[in-house]
Amino acid sequence: MKNQLLLAIFLVGAIALPDTSSREEERLTFIDNRLELVYPVIQRFKSLITLDPFKVTQTWIGSDVCSYRGFHCDNPPDNKTAVTVASIDFNGFQLFAPSIEGFIDLLPDLALFHVNSNNFGGTVPSKIVNLKYLYELDISNNKFTGQFPTAVVDMPGLTFLDIRFNSFSGSIPPQIFGQNLDVLFINDNTFTASLPEIPGDSHILFLTLADNKFNGPLPRSILRSMSTLTEVLFLNNDFTGCIPYEIGLLKGASIIDIGGNKLTGSLPLSLMCLEKVKQLNFAGNLLFGAIPEAVCMLLRDNLVNLSLSDNYFTHVGPWCKVLVDRGVLDIRSNCIPFFPGQRPIEECAEFFVKQKYYCPHAWFHSFLPCKYSHIPSSPSSAFMPMLAPSP
């Protein structure tokens, strides 16, 4: 009887206990109502996080949202006296949450969202299109899935998009290449299909499509419209066909890497137009023929690395040999007679017996889409330099 009485008293007391957590929230005072609006958004997202090795979320307490680790405040463009959450930087926090929906899309004044190297999953919410100030989106090295986040296509203010090292799949909307982007990194996903042809010009400076499953030919329109590119990485995909002469239109590029694909045919002479290129990688393809002497001669001063290994080239001339001796040109595992480190004769013979594909419009490979002072005016002199290099 005594125990039952004690239990009844305990239960009554428990029912009568005040909700201290809700009262604590009621007592919070925010320096700006914009911070008050995002506070519950942050707290709901905090409740979804099941792994926090660096105890980041322990700082997400109280009304001083601007002091939360990973959150940065500033004055929004529409009200210079207001204070709001302007950027998120969770890079390297290794937080685990099943989704960012209901978080990023409910921070209306967000300008930067960087969450590299966490364990966020799900899809990218379509409502991010309403974030009118967002200009940098980095969700790389997470566990996102689904199709390409097409909402970004309707975000004209976006200049930086990095979705590398996730599990996105499907195709790429052609409109993304016409965005006002400076940086587009979509490598190390599972995108498939061929790259789309694109209308108009592109302003992209850094483009990385590497380590996906893109197939089909290299789109000539992408190369034609991206004269501003500084770095272009197409390596480790399934691109086929020949290298179009439009590659020579990448006049601002310092790095071009198209290694590890299934490209065939010969190297286009338009590579001579790449005045600023320092690194060229075509290794691991099905390229064959003679390595163009004119390319070696005209690019010899700027080139740091030209990798043509693991192809089926059959001839190297004196200018190219100079680059081999300098350690600039790598021609290992080709079919060049009397040159060390080549494929077995039987392997080369088998390739050329089976090789049935020839580039359409083969004359395009001799076309020079540039008129620079470093290129001889006479086509014959470009094909066959009169003077051999000094030993």
Describe this structure in words.
- It is a single chain.
- This protein is α/β, with parallel strands linked by helices and 391 residues long.
- It has 8 helices and 22 strands.
- It has helices at residues 2-16, 20-27, 33-48, 220-225, 293-299, 318-326, 345-354, 379-383; strands spanning 71-74, 84-89, 96-97, 112-114, 119-122, 136-138, 143-147, 160-162, 167-170, 183-185, 190-191, 206-208, 215-216, 231-233, 238-242, 255-257, 262-265, 279-281, 286-290, 305-307, 312-315, 329-330.
- It has a 12-stranded mixed beta sheet with strand order 1-2-4-6-8-10-12-14-16-18-20-22. The protein has a 5-stranded parallel beta sheet with strand order 3-5-7-9-11, with no helix packed on it. The protein has a 5-stranded parallel beta sheet with strand order 13-15-17-19-21, with no helix packed on it.
- α5 crosses α6.
- It is elongated and about 85 Å long.
- The model is unreliable at 5-24 and 373-391 (pLDDT under 50).
- It is a single-pass type I membrane protein.
- It comes from Eruca vesicaria subsp. sativa.
- This is Leucine-rich repeat-containing N-terminal plant-type domain-containing protein.
- One of its GO terms (cellular component) is membrane.
- Pfam families: LRR_1.
